[in-house]
Design brief:
The protein is an alpha/beta fold. The chain folds into three domains: 163 residues, Immunoglobulin-like (Sandwich); 205 residues, 3-Layer(aba) Sandwich (Rossmann fold), CATH 3.40.50.410; 87 residues. 42% of the residues lie in helices and 23% in strands. The chain is built from 17 helices and 19 strands. Helix 11 packs across helix 17.
Length: 587
């Protein structure tokens, strides 16, 4: 396994990073390959008649076999396992030409360890870089650790292996079931013949109604036909559906570059603690560090907390689908995020640092929910399943500076007080380790503070973000107990503080104020019972984890989802343009 380590310090200017442009050369090479294949398919040396006859006979037999296999495409539960085996065998045969086409299209703009090193930047900073020491009082400051990835323009989007886990229990009856069925029309619109899709349905039992097959035009029709036969019935056991999805992914002989599970449900599981069972199932599968589960909640009565908790396990996103209009944006955002990943997984470790000058430096808090952080001694550790290009992940903690009574050199005492390390696991199984140090300047207690230093704007923006998220959660808890007026006051007081801050003219802060105004509306009793609680849970999670949410004004700032969406759409268009140049007999 190849491992590379690079380091930086917060008191030094950051080196400019750039990526060598190779997309054009790759396009020319693939264009040449396509031209060669096109020319080889032109009339020239004709095969002998007996060879042609054998080929035609083989095709006729194959068509007959496959027609029989598909003639009862998943009509009953009893036929499911048998039919699945036939379909898988059929697809293994017909997908070979697609594999030939795939070689012509550079879906994955391959990034090597040096490339990722150039486009990623790890930093750590404090609210203030110059701190006046105190012999009487410990001082606590917000700390920000950030991992930024430059935006890349994909020449083509990577092919996807996607398993949709669909709840068809009795609680999904009526409008919710129809909404779920209609979502597949939107989803299939975003998938091409190089992607593969499987559909698992569950109630208190589980069935695979579509095996992992290429989403070419013919299969899309069959997929929609299979979905149309799904009806609501029985109880709900979400873990069964996720377990089957993981089995399908583990049984793959070959795998596409990007893999994900979409869970479509109302989250009304009959047994308490579904998220814990799913977490155990993922751990037992061995896929927990390479699979992203995105959850889509349907219906006013869905359980947003459970759906959020399930998404949290793999750092996926949760989307509340109120109506069909939300579907396309949710799919493009989630697929765009998957396609924009430059790493399989990332582990961030933040540590306090001791020195001769300062002993007793501590990290006293890491902002996030219980599943986001783990502690190892004095260090805080967090993980994310994928790392998107064009995006910055920001982690907010609090650092305590101890009292100090010794004399320091006037205006010149620099001390390392914290460090951050990112362990980035790349798709080729190599590892990139990046490090950065936080170095501050300490002044004597009696030394005149002559520095006109403004609080770090990035640190304070993110501090407001996480504090706002915590207060949204507090307001939700108060509203659950009927304390709507108290909840409203909590949010209003914080909004006023943000409005009066030195950041009030920044676009992010203006959008945050809009989100707080909406949150205040959500804790009105009637609105809270309708959609307010759902929105508060989703918005609080999106803010604390910097994830996409269809209801947030700040969502575009949190995730740069517009870049992911633009890249996804643009790469799909380029795939389509190149595909037109491929011979019909290979499509």
């Amino acid at each position: 396994m190849m491992t590379k380590t690079s380091s930086s310090s917060s008191d030094q200017p950051q080196a400019k990073s750039s990526q060598e442009a190779g997309a054009q050369a790759q396009m020319e090479e693939n264009s040449s390959t396509t031209e060669s294949l096109l020319s080889s398919s032109k009339p020239g040396k004709a095969p002998s008649l007996w060879k042609g006859a054998i080929i035609i006979l083989f095709i006729v037999v194959l068509i007959g076999m496959t027609s029989a296999a598909y003639s009862n495409f998943f009509h009953t539960d009893e036929d499911l396992e048998t039919t699945t085996a036939y379909v898988e065998n059929f697809q293994d045969t017909v997908s070979k030409p697609n594999e030939m086409i795939a070689k012509l299209i550079p879906h994955n703009d391959k990034l090597f360890i040096d490339d990722v090193d150039k486009i990623t930047d790890l930093s750590i900073r404090l609210k203030r870089n110059i701190i006046q020491s105190s012999s009487l009082t410990e001082q606590t400051f917000p700390l920000l650790a950030s991992l930024a990835v430059k935006d890349l323009m994909l020449s083509h989007r990577a092919p996807l292996d996607l398993v949709c886990v669909l709840d068809h229990s009795g609680s999904m009856q009526g409008e919710k079931m129809e909404l779920v069925k209609n979502t597949f029309k939107y989803l299939l619109h975003f998938l091409n013949e190089f992607d593969r899709l499987s559909i698992v349905i569950f109630d208190d039992q589980v069935s695979t109604i579509v095996p992992l097959i290429n989403t070419n035009d013919a299969n899309k029709k069959r997929i929609l036909s299979a979905i149309s036969t799904v009806h609501d019935r029985g109880g709900t056991n979400i873990n069964l559906g996720v377990q089957r999805a993981l089995e399908i992914l583990k049984e793959r002989k070959e795998m596409n570059v990007v893999t994900s599970i979409f869970l479509l449900s109302d989250g009304l599981d009959n047994r308490h603690g579904a998220q814990y069972r799913i977490k155990d199932t993922l751990a037992n599968s061995g896929l927990q560090d390479s699979i992203v589960i995105h959850t889509f909640g349907f219906g006013r009565d869905h359980d947003p907390q459970l759906m959020t908790d399930i998404a949290d396990i793999t750092d996926g996103s949760f989307y509340f689908i109120k109506k069909l209009d939300n579907i396309d944006e949710a799919f493009v955002e989630s697929l765009g995020a998957l396609q924009s990943s430059v790493a399989k997984s990332v582990q961030i470790t933040v540590r306090p640092e001791q020195s001769e000058v300062l002993q007793g430096v501590k990290l006293v808090k890491a902002y996030g929910d219980a599943t986001m952080w783990a502690q190892n001694g004095q260090s805080y550790i967090t993980k994310t399943t994928y790392l998107m290009h064009g995006r910055q992940k920001d982690y907010v903690l609090e650092l305590k500076i101890p009292t100090i009574s010794k004399k320091l050199e006037y205006g010149k005492t620099q001390v390392k007080v914290a460090s951050v390390e990112a362990l980035i696991n790349l798709p080729d199984n190599s590892q990139l380790i990046k490090k950065a140090d936080l170095i501050i300047t300490l002044l004597n207690e009696e030394e005149e503070f002559r520095y006109n230093e403004e609080d770090d704007r990035e640190v304070m923006k993110n501090y407001f973000r996480v504090k706002g998220a915590l207060l949204m959660d507090e307001a939700r808890q108060m509203s659950d107990e009927g304390g709507y007026e108290v909840a409203k006051k909590i949010l209003q007081d914080f909004k006023e503080g943000v409005e009066n801050s030195f950041l009030k003219e920044e676009r992010f802060i203006k959008d945050m104020i809009k989100d707080l105004e909406n949150a205040i509306k959500y804790v009105e009793p009637e609105e809270y019972e309708k959609y307010g609680r759902h929105n508060l849970i989703g918005n609080q999670r999106a803010q604390i984890r910097q994830q996409s949410n269809l209801d947030l004004s700040t969502s575009v700032h949190l995730t740069n989802t517009h870049l992911a969406k633009n890249n996804f759409v643009l790469a799909a268009k380029k795939d389509e343009e190149l595909r037109k140049r491929i011979p019909n007999q290979l499509r």
